[in-house]
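thread: overnight batch results

M.L. [08:02]
morning all. the overnight job finished for the chain we discussed friday. pasting input first so we're all looking at the same thing
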Amino acid sequence: MRGAILAAVSLTALAAAAPASAATLNLLIWEAYINEEILADFTGETGIEVRQTFYDSGDARDEILSDPNSNVDVVVTNENGAKLYGNRGIIMALDRKNVPALADYAESWTKRCGGYGVPYLWGTMGILYRSDAITTPPSSWADIMKPAESLRGHIAMYDDHAEAFVAPLVLLGKSVNANDNETLKAAFELMKAQRPYVLTYDYVVTSIQSADKGPKIYMALGYSGDQYTLNGKVGAPGLWRYVVPREGTLSWLDCITVSERSQNRDLALKLVDYISNARNGARNATKLNMPTASTAALALLPEDVRSDPEIYAAPEILAKSQLQEELTVQSVQARRRIISSLAQLSDAR
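M.L. [08:03]
and the structure it wrote out:
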């Protein structure tokens, strides 16, 4: 899987590089997931360079973060990752003393990062579709899991052990956090039947940039906000659109955290606080067309942005959304075996 390859490459690069100097911080983050002007301004104001390393799946990120030789200072992880790695002593506990910007976030948000991160951006999972190829917007997870014949070889799924199972599990009426073998087997049967229609199991933001695969992708599993990134990558505003299926979905939250292994923790805390303050939280949300969890930043956004349903999910959608919970080790292993086997079969084809 590409995620595993990316992880290996990134691990090598981060381990081979000298630890970040007093003038450099290493940020582990999704591609196109921060307003570059914020980092440039931080460097201009402090003289500290921020070097980004990208991952394209949660599994790839976790492999990098778990390696004691990777020189990560700041990392964006999901809420489960923040709690898991915080409890393992891999990332720092954060509070209003070491990150003053936390005062701008409601407790309902901060508690989801477990005391080990600042809420970064949040959203839902759903279906991305190319509006010139699919004229009737998808409305159900069945549209991607049991696709029309015209979509054979035109779907991009995802090789992450958690998010890859959202579509089949919700379609089955099950919890996205299912651990039992019977439920996972039922999900696997759906995924196996879908496989002939899947062009790639690479994250769509990665695969859309492939000259061979990109033009062939008509529908994809993805996150709210990905449509704007895809349109920017292909240079066609409005081409890619996003919907949340009627059965419900996953409501996710990412947290920005500081590595306990960082040689420059004070500077890393300064960067996290800078990114998380009200002004930059609003700048980030506006640039990425994604929702901020900062109450102060939200107040700085224009009303048309705050009321945009493609950015801020409607209450009825959130009411049907599930939150991620920590999976059992056995469940994670089973899920990884399933998605790995599907991806390998796809690559072989």
